[in-house]
Amino acid sequence: MGTLESVVVGILSSVAASVLWILMLSRLTPKLSISPVIAEDPETDPETPVFRIKVVNRSRRAAMDLRFQVDLMTFRVKGGNVNRRVPLKCGNAPLMFPRYDRSDKDHGNAYRLRINSDIRKLLREQPNASIRLQIFARHELSGMGKVFEQRYFHPNSEIVTGTFVRGQDLALIPEQP
Question: Whole-model pTM above 0.70?
């Protein structure tokens, strides 16, 4: 029985070590915050408006291998539920988000994603539509990836003409009429 017990103990201890390792790595994922509103740049031409969404890296490590996807999502019911995704034009993603650092005066861990499509017009034309932002990022140390998603359904309340404040805050300064 000594050999069987040692085999069972070996298997159980390796399974427990694997579970602990996976739990530890799963805690080492990027921590990004996405603004709950979209800012319409007040200084652009009304014929070609520019919109921005602010994203902040709140992790102690850099976020790597970033990919941004902004889509117009439409939902139709015609003989069954149909979801349609239309990619929107947006600026290039940075290669990495630096880590959160209180002493960083340039706030390198904050990024304003530029969207070159007229979101307000698209949402007005299609009442059952929404804007979906998806971000994929990997943790600098562990390499564990995570997908972040934010949806915008209400153009009147979630699209504001103004600019985001500088720094870590996701607040928006609305344009004065």
Answer: yes
